[in-house]
Write a structure and sequence with these properties.
By secondary structure, the protein is mainly alpha-helical. It contains 13 helices and no strands.
């Protein structure tokens, strides 16, 4: 019996050692994956891809094909704006996301300027109308982030303006850029503009719920600071529910009928985000993946509908 017990003890020790090794390897792999994900989110690559996907979303609804050059220009314009933000928003970022705060302002400034130049160059090559559409969010990004006068607040410091400007910028580029490459009915452009505007507004305000401490310390007046999480939740539920009217109008007018399941999926997706990020202490990495990257599942659903 003693020999049997010793054998069982040795097997148990080996099994436990093996499990610890496996757990250690899994933990190390998870750490590496998390690090890669954080790089893509903190460097605004996810945001850039998401903006390009919003343009793909619009072009799919319009029934046209958009050139890779325009998608690249859209991606780079987003990188330019959000890299500039990393330079101008160091005070609030040091509180809101200290793990991502970097002293590499020079690097981000160079990245912003170079992305801006390439994006604008592509716009000029594609035509002056494309150039002006690409220039608009870049212009908004500059006046939104930079304090022009000591006596005047930055636009982002005015209550609600921050979220509205970001949403307008995304909706303007996403709905109008594809329409410049082919003839599109004006009512379709307006409908797509409204759809992107509502989605982006919801996502921007949800991000502000994570940034309350830093925004408050930096005198950035956001909706969550003014209304609190409870009031913000109710406001966003009302805003997102406006998409029900959007869906009803599309059904009545016969527009985008084959794509309405994807549009409805987007509305339900936003409801889930509102519930999660206003009911719980949502993690920033979750927000950067599921809010910044929200257009990826939309495109996946659209492609499934097409095929």
């Amino acid at each position: 019996m003693s020999g049997g017990n010793n054998c069982l003890s040795k097997l148990w020790i080996r099994a436990r050692s093996y499990n610890q090794t496996i757990n250690g390897v899994n933990a190390e792999n998870l750490k590496k994956v998390t690090g890669i994900v954080r790089f893509f989110t903190s460097s605004s690559i996810v945001l850039g891809i998401s903006t390009a996907l919003a343009v793909c979303f619009s072009s799919t609804l319009y029934g046209i094909t958009i050139s890779p050059a325009l998608l690249l220009a859209t991606f780079l314009s987003t990188i330019a704006v959000y890299s500039l933000n990393k330079v101008t928003d160091t005070a609030e970022d040091s509180i809101n996301k200290p793990e991502q705060t970097s002293n590499r302002q020079t690097y981000y400034l160079i990245l912003s300027i170079s992305s801006f130049i390439i994006s604008i160059a592509i716009g000029i090559i594609q035509g002056w109308a494309v150039f002006l559409v690409l220039l608009t969010p870049l212009f908004i990004g500059v006046i939104y982030s930079i304090k022009i006068s000591k006596s005047l607040p930055r636009l982002k410091e005015i209550l609600g303006v921050k979220s509205l400007l970001v949403a307008f910028s995304w909706a303007f580029t996403g709905s109008l850029l594809p329409a410049l490459t082919s003839r599109v009915a004006p009512e379709k452009i307006v409908l797509v503009f409204i759809y992107i505007l509502i989605h982006t507004f919801v996502g921007t305000v949800l991000f502000d719920t994570l940034d309350i401490r830093g925004d408050d310390a930096s005198n950035v007046k956001t909706i969550p600071i003014q209304l609190g999480k409870y009031g913000t939740r109710h406001l966003l539920l009302i805003v997102n529910s406006m998409l029900l009217l959007w869906l009803g109008f599309c059904i009545a007018s016969g527009l985008f009928i084959s794509y309405l399941p994807a549009a409805m999926f987007g509305m339900l997706y936003s409801y889930a985000l509102i519930w999660y990020f206003t009911k719980t202490e949502g993690k920033r990495l979750h927000a950067e993946l599921f809010i910044d990257g929200e257009w990826l599942p939309f495109i996946v659903v659209l492609q499934l509908l097409i095929h």
